[in-house]
Amino acid sequence: MSNCKICLCAVVLLMCGLFMFTGVCLAGERGYVELRTLFDKYEKTQDADKNLSELATQKQGERDTLVKDIRRMKDEMVVLADKGEEKVKKQAEIDQKIKELQMFDEKTREELREIRDTNIQEIFSDINKLVEDYGKNKKYDFIFSDRALVYKEEKFNITNVILEKLNNKYKKGKK
């Protein structure tokens, strides 16, 4: 066979494959979800954000107390201007408090990041599981994320249905 015939056969086979794949894709249900909407409007996300914010506020209060102690100690050191040994001792105390503050800051950042990361993993796990279950129950062939689509018809958007089911399941779990 000539190279032209081989290329023509390959193109024809490729086109047939694409048409068959397109036919399969169009045969069943398909839909897409807006992940950002699901994530942002999921009540579990909102609760997690609120809890994390409350914890951050509490930690900020603890930090403010440490800073206030350092300032007080520095003010006390000004009074000790003439007393060399006491001043050195006070400076050592201040240095220790500053180290405590730095360790507190580092530990707090790590703790808040771990909580946030765990929350995000749980939330996306909930979303993925529910989308998968919904797709199986409703006999969908495909459910895409809106981020991966170049073009989409609004009629295939199942975000609100999934969001309602997510929030209902979350409310039942809280009781």
Characterise this structure.
By secondary structure, the chain is mainly α. The chain has one domain. It contains five helices and two strands; from the N terminus they run αβαααβα. The chain has helices spanning 3-27, 35-41, 43-79, 84-137, 159-174; strands at 29-33, 140-145.
List the helices and strands and how they pair.
Elements: H1 3-27, E1 29-33, H2 35-41, H3 43-79, H4 84-137, E2 140-145, H5 159-174
Helix pairs in contact: 2-5, 3-4
Helix content: over 70%
Q: Using only CA atoms, what is the Rg?
A: 30 Å
Q: What's the number of extended β-strand segments?
A: 2
Largest beta-sheet characterization: 2 strands, parallel
Topology as H/E string?
HEHHHEH
Number of structurally distinct domains: 1
The computed structural class is: mainly alpha
Beta-strand percentage?
5-15%
Strand order of the largest sheet: 1-2
Note the overall shape.
rod-shaped
**Arithmetic mean pLDDT:** 85
Low-confidence stretches: 7-13, 16-25
Number of helices: 5
The separation of the N and C termini measures 72 Å
Quickly list its features.
175 residues, mainly alpha, two-stranded parallel ribbon, 2 strands, 79% helix
What's this, in brief?
With 175 residues, this protein is mainly alpha-helical. Helices cover 79% and strands 6% of the residues.
